[in-house]
Design a protein that fits this description.
By secondary structure, the protein is of the alpha/beta class. It has helices at about 15-25, 35-40, 45-55, 70-90, 110-130, 140-145, 155-165, 175-180, 185-190, 230-240, 255, 260-275, and strands spanning about 1-5, 30, 55, 60, 95-100, 100-105, 130-135, 150, 170-175, 195-200, 245-250. The strands form 2 sheets. The chain has a 9-stranded parallel β-sheet with strand order 3-2-1-11-10-9-7-5-4. Strands 6-8 form a two-stranded antiparallel sheet. β10 (about 195-200), α10 (about 230-240) and β11 form a beta-alpha-beta unit.
Length: about 280
């Protein structure tokens, strides 16, 4: 596994060309891409820019309108096909999206069937382009509070949905925050195979707040507070041979106050520190 810069997650406003420069200067191995930016700049130019800096295109966000009406959903499927082709051309073979952990209209079984029905065509399209799809579960109890029906919010249940889709290219987007707030255990990760994990996000949680009272957008830099067992998390991923990208997603207001260069540097230092704590080769 390797660290990759996800600019929007750490308050960096620079365009893709600038993100690549920041990643190179700060020792990142990859950069998450917005496929629309790649299309605007041009595949050849983007490919050359990555190659010149020895970086890889880490992953992109799936533009699937999962909950839209049928027409909107079908239009978004066409965009998935278009983006998958472009991402293939720049050597980017991972994409992801999140799954809401609640519904106000569908009980669990019907919601599961709905997600399989809508995700399978997208996953098949991605498989045709050699692309993996990561699905993120949302762990916090505070997200589900006030909604009529619970839905998937744990690693095990999300892995089951990945398997039910049945295309062979769907796994987890594993976020340390959501793993922690779902009461996840290191052993759950150690029981996975590399193919079960498509993408990884790291962060920390504020101190003094019970797990079930943690609020999703109030987080900390990876390893900052020690609330999340980031050492166990990373060592488990290393143990299963995870080879994909790892990005920071701290939702930090402090990062947003920094220049792009400072945010890239501070984030890289944070990631290096947790690698060191886990005694992993950076």
């Amino acid at each position: 596994m390797y660290i990759a810069l996800a600019a929007g997650a750490v308050g960096i406003k620079a365009p893709l060309e600038g993100q690549l420069e920041l990643a190179y200067d700060n020792g990142y191995k990859g950069v998450y891409v917005n496929v629309a930016d790649v299309m605007r700049i041009g595949v050849d130019k983007v490919t050359s820019a990555f190659k010149a800096r020895g970086l890889v295109a880490a992953a992109w966000w799936l533009p699937l309108d999962l909950h839209g009406d049928q027409a909107a959903y079908e239009r978004s499927l066409e965009k998935v096909r278009e983006y998958a082709e472009v991402s293939k051309q720049i050597g980017c073979s991972r994409t992801s999206t999140y799954i809401l952990s609640f519904s106000d209209t569908l009980p669990w079984d019907r919601n599961r069937d709905f997600h399989v029905k809508r995700l399978k065509p997208a996953a098949q399209t991605l498989a045709e382009k050699g692309c993996l799809l990561g699905l993120e579960f949302l762990g916090p109890k505070t997200i589900r509070k006030g909604h009529r029906y619970d839905f998937i919010y744990t690693l095990g249940d999300m892995l089951k949905l990945c398997q039910d889709i049945g295309t062979g290219n769907v796994g987890l987007l594993l976020d340390a925050w959501h793993w922690y707030t779902s009461h996840g255990k290191v052993g759950e990760i150690e029981a996975l195979g590399d193919g079960d994990v498509v993408d990884v996000h790291v962060n920390d949680a504020p101190k003094g707040i019970p797990i079930d009272e943690q609020v999703d957008n109030v987080r900390a830099m990876p390893g900052e507070t020690g609330v999340i067992d980031i050492v166990g998390f990373l060592r488990a991923l290393d143990k299963i041979g995870y080879t994909g990208p790892v990005m920071a997603e701290p939702f930090s207001k402090e990062l947003e106050k920094l220049t792009d260069a400072e945010a890239a540097r501070v984030t890289a230092e944070s990631l290096r520190k947790i690698w060191s704590k886990a005694n992993l080769q950076f």
